[in-house]
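Hi everyone,

Forwarding the result from last night's run.
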Amino acid sequence: MPLIGLLIPVDSYGDIVLTFTYVVILMSVGQLGQNRTILRFEGIKFATFETSSAIALLSSIIIAGIAVKILEIHSLVIFAVVFIVYLNLLYSKCRVDNNIVAFSILKLSYPILKLLSFFALMFFADLNLSIGYVIAEIFSSFISVLVGIRFIKFKKAFNKIEVPLFMKFGIPVFFQTILLHVIQYGDKIFVSSYFGKIVLANYFFVSIFCTCVVFLFSYFSQKYEVIIYRAKNWNEAKRRTTNYLIKCLMSGFAFFPIALLSYLIAVQVNGDYDINYRLMLLMYASSLLGAFTNSYFYLIGYLNKNSLIIKYSLFLCLLYVTFIFTGVEQLGIYVMPAANIFATLVSLIVFSRLITTLRQK
């Protein structure tokens, strides 16, 4: 996304950011929490990957189809969402199997193919750039899926007996995803409608360099999430979660100078964007807090109390939205990251007490 932003006009970039936001939200919601179900039950329950895949693909088709009608976006988005959902399930399967080679190949091939195919369409096809982006998503995710399934050993079975269990585990994650995406991606829609697409392009351009730290967190999540879920006791789960959190924070602080320097260079390369240090600092701090939220979710997953995730996410979302609508006139574009920081800190303090209470019972 940063490279795309450097090579196209700011207003066109704003359109692509909005399309990207819709695709990511629909993909995350459409998989119905089955990516996490695979991490939790694969190898424990029979045919987890196959059963979860069937649930996720069916739900993603339905949810994306409804969204296309309601939001009046291009129907090609459905294909993009379905292929990306299955690719995400393959990521989870590789993580459970500890197949580092396959995971690395998929993680690298997908964004590289997306970038190359988008640029090819941009330079050689007379297409609307937003449609070109969706086609690039379809092509890159489809090819990556074809590559990924070569690494998977399928059981060639669908275990309908496990569907209620997987739905019970996945539905709270589904609602958690909806509520958290109000924060993670809803801000782009709000900025577009409240401030306009040019401001959205600048806002998203800053956020790219701040949220890059999340990829570091993803590396540690790949290593720790599964072993936290499968810890033998609470103390072991808590110790592993603490190790995850420490490594995320240390790498996050170390990465900040790189993120800042990359942002400054990118702004100099494309003079259409403005340098905004305050927004950069607020967004980066907001991204760092994501490691604390992940830690909380992993411990809740270990306790098998996923209903608490919904309560946490709802509480967080309500605080976030309230802060925005009461502070947008005073804080302007800075209100979104400030709201996220405030809501996350308050929610973590309140719900950490609930975990303590659960452990005492």
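The longest helix spans residues 234-269.

Cheers,
N.
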